[in-house]
Amino acid sequence: MIICPNNKDECSLFIEPRPKTGFLMISDEENKSTIRQKLDEIFKFKDYYLVDAMSIRHTTDNYCKICELILSCAFGVALITEKTEEETLRNIYLEIGLMKAFGKEVLILTDNRCKIATDLVGKGSQRYSNYDELQQKVHEWLNILIKEQAHVRRMAEIWIKEKDYEKAFEYYRKGVMLGDFEHSFRILKEKLDPKNKKLNISKRLKSQISQFIDDIDKHQSLKISVTRIPKRRSIRSTRPQEINVSKSDIPSISLKLSDLPTGWISETKTVVGDLWEYGSSFRDTPKRVGYPTLKSVIYNYSSIEEAKKGFANAKKKIEIAAREGRLFIPDIGDECYGYISDFLIAVVVFRRGNLLIRTEYKCDPTDPTTEDAEYYARIVDNKVMNLQK
Questions:
Q1: Chain centroid, CA 12 distance in Å
Q2: Distance (Å, rounded) from C-alpha 219 to C-alpha 71?
Q3: Could you tell me whether strands 345-352 and 265-270 are parallel, antiparallel, or unpaired per DSSP bridges?
């Protein structure tokens, strides 16, 4: 529960919190462009989400809608480019100021061709010149935001010892809003339990804590933050139910020479164990330097739940190893991620039903393109889907 400072009759008194969600301050033109989709993908990789004013319906005036988003979101993200009109820029500056006034962290993203107000230079502003640089800047900022959770917990503990439960609650609430459900939320419920009569807490504060705990429990059970993303960007919602693929179907859905351009030759084919059911590698003609190589591996799990665990474990390892690298989320399978490794290999890993498919594309000495890795991964995914027809 967050109390709205505007007590007018047309404003709601209580505002539903949106943990792990950022208020995106963006122009209408940029909101409809590719960059918005890219930003959604970057934040979603870290399990964070963005919501903009255009995607939220509100029965009162526009200012109240903006105020509600500022109060309910955990942080802010402002995008300022050469396409941002002067009128929209003034609105963004106002929204940044309001978020700062309410103690919210704000990431300001701007391209190298755009000048921003001098007061904002160095105040959380990050310049970028291309998508890879934008991605790197956002991931660096999110890593700092995640590390901030430990500091917030320590501050809350200090105020608990001082018996200043109001300030302790503010810090715990901030930690929960940033996504620290495992520690901050658990400790909040243990140490600031409104039902604990030994704590000298006012009725007002008890009511706020109780309502906040109920809101977060509801969020955790219903995954409210996911539904905040506009439906027009949610492609996966229309997909069929998850499927099970038998081992006997693995060879038919694997990559073959017939799926590749003319000139490619098969290098190796491997069948190993229960999980690594089918692996195949290909390479282009070796007549030129830096010929591309392609590797596709299909892991077959006994159930969809086991495959989900396998995907989660793989993603966690890659997130740690490639946190400073180039990460992206293609729209393939039931869940998917991709990255470019330190060895300049473009990798796409996706899960479709009980299968986990890994595609690697390399082209020395030039940088690999994510498009090639996505293309060949999609070929395998289409084959899987055709099994159901």
A1: 29
A2: 16
A3: unpaired
Whether this model's pTM surpasses 0.90: no
Sequence-distant (≥ 6) Cβ neighbours of residue 294 within 8 angstroms: 255, 260, 264, 281, 282, 283, 359, 360, 361, 362, 376
Per-residue pLDDT tens for 26-55? 988 888 778 888 888 888 877 888 988 876
Spatial neighbors of 210 by CB under 8 A, at least 6 apart, are 194
Contact 74, 178 (CB under 8 A): yes
Q: Concatenate the DSSP letters of all residues of 150-205 into one string.
A: HHHHHHHHHHHHTT-HHHHHHHHHHHHHTT-IIIIIHHHHHHS-TT-TTS---HHH
Token pair of 230 as six digits: 């506009």
Cis geometry, peptide bond prior to residue 261 (ω within 30 degrees of 0):
no
Q: Are 362 and 346 in contact (CB under 8 A)?
A: yes
Give the β-pairing of 73-80 and 105-111.
parallel
Give all domains of the chain, ordered by start, each with its CATH number. 2-232 (no CATH), 247-386 (3.40.1000.70)
pLDDT at 166: 93
User: How high is the pLDDT of residue 234?
Assistant: 32
Q: Which residue has the higher pLDDT, 64 or 40?
A: 40
144-147: which pairs have CB atoms within 8 A and are 24 or more residues apart?
145/75, 145/105, 145/178, 146/46, 146/178, 146/179
Q: 97-129, pLDDT tens digit by residue?
A: 899 888 899 999 988 766 776 666 655 678 888
Is 124 or 162 the better-scoring residue by pLDDT?
A: 162
Whether the Cβ atoms of residue 374 and residue 332 lie closer than 8 Å to each other: yes
CA 172 to chain centre: 22
